[in-house]
User: Fold these one by one.
Assistant:
Number 1:
Amino acid sequence: LKVIITNRAKGSLTSAILGADAEFDNWASIALEHRWNLQPDLLKVSHHGSRFGTYADVLVAIRPKFAVVSVGENPYEHPEEWVLALLDEATSGQVFRTDENGTCLFESDGVEWRYRD
């Protein structure tokens, strides 16, 4: 799901992609079909940061500025460390996790996203 927020006065927009439970085949299809229309400023990471929902090629294609991993204590050890490393590289360190940051609240004026703590 892609959410677009516009600021008509400034003629700009920002967007977020909410990854839900998208897996590799879903992301591959989405990236192939919509590659040039994806580029979200904010990515809600799929599958709680598991190996099934995050891929280097997709991150290169969509180039998010921020990533949010919704995760709590779990027996699967999510998020996976190598996924966090991919996200960290793709977003220049702008990765937020609900298990560490609590509720991750972002706001946008249609120009940019801001993290609110």
Number 2:
Amino acid sequence: MKWGLVLLAVILILGFLIIRSDIFTIRSVDIGSEKIVCTNSEKIKNASKLLGQNLFLISTSKVKNAIKKKFLCIKDVALSRIFPNKISIFVSGREGKVLLMTIKKEDATVSASLKDIATPSAERLEADEGLEVDEDGVIFAKKAPTFDLPRIYVHSNLALGQIIPDTIFNALKVLDKVRSYGLDVSISEILDGWFMTYEQLNTPRIIFKLEENLDAQLASLQLILNQAKIDENQLEFIDLRFDKPVLRLAPKKN
């Protein structure tokens, strides 16, 4: 029994010395990346602070969190130990789902008739940049308006690194569903608990009530669109805030 304890102690001491030896001091950090636009490999390597540390004593969770906290555009970090003294890091970026455009507070007024509200103009914006949001609702970058991302105009004070509030998150879900119905919605607005898409070519203006049952409103929209297609009607306006949706059809051409 005594010799067993001595042997165990010797093994533990040898193991400690081996772990703490220079053999396992990290001398190389390889960075791989996918869809990263806010930084580069060298900056990620520096942010990891791994060089010179012991391969066994690093906290992978702390390293991952440090990288994600420093670079908002990074969504996932994978870290692998390569014996005896190397680390491999692979990072993947967030993908923009929508661009949030902030409207000046003094312009956040509601028209008596929502179907008559004009599409937001450049003069109503606080800046030329929007806030890019991914599917998780994380605001991770600033970006000038482009055609590759739909824009939602909001009356909220938002900042990089924030998770968008539930109201905006619900609007994103609605927008995604509406676009899946084949409607090319690129401009919309959240106004006093309502979500409004703006009329464009072959796309009607649609109004949702974000605080109500969105699944029921979306189901009604799908039925309306299907019926309009059967009847060969062109829809100009759909208001889904009421039990009975309000519709306006475009005049039929002779």
Number 3:
Amino acid sequence: ELRTILAKNVRQEKVANKDIKMRTDCGMVSVRKQNIEVVKGIVVVALLVWALFMGLGAVIYHKDFTVAEYWLGTLNSFTILLFSIAVSVLFGVLLPSVDALNGASNILGLGMSFFSGVFVPAELLPDYVNTIGEFLPAGGYMKNVRLLNIENSATTHFSEFLVNCGIITAFAVAVFFVFLVVVKRRKAA
């Protein structure tokens, strides 16, 4: 009985999605403009949520860090936010359903987190896991978090901090360009 209900819900979702697509396709707004508006919406919502959490962190923990550490931590979180936005728009274009989107996001997010030492300290992980983690955006993010947790380390190792932020940003730009290529190819097809 549960399978029947789930199958019925999936069929209804597919019909609803097809109906929405047909309605937007017959409108005056081009597919390019639609994609731009969706990306802008994702960016605005992500930036608002990020700014809310940064503000709450500043209010709650203002005694626990220096001004330099706060701004460096903010920069670090902003770079990983850029990567997350890029992955979100790419997955939104590539994946056919919300369930597939959730699954892929969990696999990518949890996998990167594990390999980068988010759940288990990097010192306790095998060398090959740490090596893989170094090549992931979350690896650069966690390196910066470790620098921020060691007193004055982020300011004394500022160039290393910026390199890690640059690597994360480069990943974000690369993923966003992949998104643009996918959109362009789908439009041509």
